[in-house]
Amino acid sequence: MPLKLMYITNQPEVAKIAEVAGVDRIFVDMEYIGKADRQGGMDTVQSKHTVEDVQRIRESIHSSELLVRVNPIHGATQDYCSSKDEIDEVISRGADILMLPFFKKVEEVREFVKLVGGRAKTIPLVETPEAVENIDEILKINGIDEIFIGLNDLSLGYNKKFMFELLVDGTVENLCCKFRQKNIPFGFGGIASIGKGLLPSEYVIREHYRLGSTCSILSRSFCNVNNVKSLDKISDIFVNGIAEIRNFEKECEVHSKYFFDNLSDIRNIVKSVTDK
């Protein structure tokens, strides 16, 4: 079955283009609490989307699901509302799926599932070493619909030089094995256009298929709308890029032996990056 592809945007016109091109989930990213501190100085996406963006995207798409990454579990302060109020507002604006980032404790995931209360699908985002350590207890919580591994922050947590090291040191594979045992759909990381990236996306897609993953995020490099001003050009990038990914996936669906050769190739490429 093809991967469910997700793309982060708060621009309705871009969301429509992505939907038409075959993106399965439009991703509104409201997370900002603590993000700048842990990713300070890095070339990472810090979206600062709002609840108003949730509603605008909801009104602009029809067939794609609307996924919203909320903030880590938190109480109300002078600067922002509580997790309960944030989650209630996001759901009222039309979110189909909520993602919880940067948790460390079992209780945080349990609280998240409780606050959502079955009104939307839930996806805990495993991106801290503590979450990995507690994953067996976390997976016992009723109400987790899917789970996702955030390679960027998790690699930072483990002091890795390159986020795809986690594909070769057993971290991702061990987690995926646990998810499969619990029959919880899962995904990890991001993919660029075919042929692009320090670790070209073909290798990453093959790993998704080998491990049984069901979804991935289209990385910023797939289509950085900040650098492309024409909507027609953006549409071309999405239509052609998604078609290339889907065509490549057909190869993954009918092959199996080459997955292990692919993992060996990944190890060699990751080593070449980290040895520099």
How would you characterize the overall build of this protein?
This protein is of the alpha/beta class and 276 residues long. The chain has a single domain (4-274), classed as Alpha-Beta Barrel (TIM Barrel), CATH 3.20.20.60. It has twelve helices and eight strands. The chain has helices at residues 12-21, 35-38, 51-60, 83-92, 106-116, 129-133, 135-138, 151-157, 171-181, 201-211, 231-254, 258-274; strands spanning 4-8, 25-29, 65-69, 97-100, 121-126, 147-149, 186-191, 215-218. An eight-stranded parallel β-barrel has the order 1-2-3-4-5-6-7-8, surrounded by seven helices. The longest helix is centred in the last third of the chain and has 24 residues, at 231-254.
Give the arrangement of secondary structure elements:
Layout: E1 4-8, H1 12-21, E2 25-29, H2 35-38, H3 51-60, E3 65-69, H4 83-92, E4 97-100, H5 106-116, E5 121-126, H6 129-133, H7 135-138, E6 147-149, H8 151-157, H9 171-181, E7 186-191, H10 201-211, E8 215-218, H11 231-254, H12 258-274
Parallel strand pairs: 1-2, 1-8, 2-3, 3-4, 4-5, 5-6, 6-7, 7-8
Helix pairs in contact: 1-3, 1-11, 10-11, 10-12
